[in-house]
Amino acid sequence: MLALTMGDPAGIGPEITAGAWAALRGEEDIRFALIADPALAAARLGGCPVHVVAQLADAAAVFPEALPIVAPATRLEVAPVAGRPDPRNAAAITGSIADAVASVRRGEAAGLVTNPIAKSVLKQAGFPHPGHTEYLAALMGRTGDEVMMLAGPELRVVPVTIHLSLRQALDSLRTDEIVRVARTTARSLLEMFGIAAPRLAIAGLNPHAGEDGHMGDEEITLIRPAMERLRAEGISLLGPLPPDTMFTEAARARYDAAICMYHDQALIPLKTLDMARGVNVTLGIGLVRTSPDHGTAFDIAGTGRAEPTSLIEALRLAGRLTQARAA
Amino acid sequence: MLALTMGDPAGIGPEITAGAWAALRGEEDIRFALIADPALAAARLGGCPVHVVAQLADAAAVFPEALPIVAPATRLEVAPVAGRPDPRNAAAITGSIADAVASVRRGEAAGLVTNPIAKSVLKQAGFPHPGHTEYLAALMGRTGDEVMMLAGPELRVVPVTIHLSLRQALDSLRTDEIVRVARTTARSLLEMFGIAAPRLAIAGLNPHAGEDGHMGDEEITLIRPAMERLRAEGISLLGPLPPDTMFTEAARARYDAAICMYHDQALIPLKTLDMARGVNVTLGIGLVRTSPDHGTAFDIAGTGRAEPTSLIEALRLAGRLTQARAA
Question: N or C: where does chain A have the smaller number of CB atoms within 10 Å of the terminal CB?
Fold first, then answer.
């Protein structure tokens, strides 16, 4: 059983949840329950059959017939309106996350899937964490080791720097951080993905991976020293690889995840290969957590245009990962 | 008729030329002749039937039966050995290029395809140009407007900055250069590719194209001003687009070429989509010139492992472009 958080109730989360339930209700190896105020159903889940259950343990039985909903401790303050986020519902949004994590810690849920939240809305309400991942790490008491992976059907990528301008990404790239991210990725591929001998590809930063220092020296000064430390820990690595040729089909066959130096180096190949089916996976926080690779999309919420594809893939991947962990 | 230069005779050029001839001899709309010292045949074209002709006009008739070779003014100094480049052959390498360009200027060849050269080998022999493209521009008397496009079956990309470290690319990005590159690309799509109303996609530099300045401001300070100038010239543009989502199949359907801010932003999607079939096209020098998207590969020259795919695609594209120009 997976716990699915509500996300921002004014975004597309409710409608993609309904779509994902309709798509997955017939798949026997995936079961999930939405952790949300039952009042959400009337406001934003119109048309989707729901069944409010007292606890997650009761959700599996109703799943084929209705979307199971488990009420969290904190309810909605105001009825959600599609496309109009309201900071008064921030406590219900974060409460759904906290309750879902608690259910994993108690062993009632095997893993966590999160619907999109809007940082700006939560910030207005005084939420102190920069984002979802940091909040989850804090709830798990595991801050400082969180890593974001993006997993598609053909490629897994892990950016070392994320939501920074390209110049800031260059300025903040550090050997220690490359080591931390790659180490956590290797451990997670083993423990969470069940890959016995994970192989990592380490991307260069510069064109042609710098050509021995002729086009940039970060490969020599930052990346190779990280690779030496990682190899000394017994981690299997390729690299630093020329970024433009490392994502071809033949190249991808040689590694299990690519450690990338900046956001678009990771996200361009992932989304170019398969835009709709990329999934976020949080590593290093001690639980299985996946999420769709898009935001709240307030601009299309309530129009019926939101695609549940990425949430469906996030639920499927969380299902596979929790089974790999259990195995 | 296309003129194909020799390239470095110690690289894979001769063997991919033989492979391309074998693959294309039956295609009626492609005819090419190799501009090379006939002595190359014995040294590096073993097994490929060749026919030395006095002039390009005689090449078409022999093409189905043998690779036509036209001797250039400057001959090889030493017999080439696979994998062992020799600066004494630099004059023969550059002479093949000069003769091929002259044949295009005289109207004997419709366009030019170049085999790979090694800049370091030519530099040792005193060659003053940074590379192929600049030399061609100088031969055409059109320096300063050359632009490199990479064209694959599914995507055309044009990097504004090319062989620079990522940091140098950031430091050297200029509005004027974005305007120049995009303008030349739009004109070439019209005049060379025969696209009546070309549409360009302009990539952002930063993740999410900077999110209105929250993650970098180059979109605001450098890219949007370039777009305003280009629009004032009547050029149809999209952008600045978030780099990670602009290369999906749905996004690609909306433009004819993507103007990219740095090497890997252009090359990662191109090579990820179709590594083998990317082709270089030089724009802005007043002739059709294509080349394979790889180097001399001295390390595998003579081993039989070189793939002629990119040269074949370069010849096919040059054939189509010269027909589009003629039409």
Answer: C
- What's the pTM value of the predicted model, to 2 decimals? 0.92
Residues ≥6 apart with Cβ < 8 Å to B58: B68
Nearest to A272 among B167, B216, B248 (CB): B248
Lookup: tokens for B86: 């020799």
Are A272 and B275 an interchain contact pair (Cβ–Cβ within 8 Å)?
A: no
Residue B100 and residue A37: Cα distance in Å, rounded? 75
Q: What is the mean pLDDT of each run of 10 residues along chain A (327 residues)?
A: 97 97 94 96 90 95 96 95 96 97 96 95 90 92 92 95 93 97 97 95 96 93 98 97 96 98 97 90 95 93 93 96 74
Q: Is A83 exposed, middle or buried (0-12, 13-18, 19+ CB in 10 A)?
A: middle
Long-range contacts (CB closer than 8 Å, 24 or more residues apart) made by A179-182: A179/A226, A179/A229, A179/A230, A180/A145, A180/A147, A181/A147, A181/A259, A182/A158, A182/A226, A182/A230, A182/A235, A182/A237, A182/A259
Q: How far apart (Å, rounded) are the C-alpha atoms in residues A291 and A275?
A: 15
Q: CB-based contacts of B103: which residues, under 8 Å, 6+ apart?
A: B3, B35, B56, B70, B109
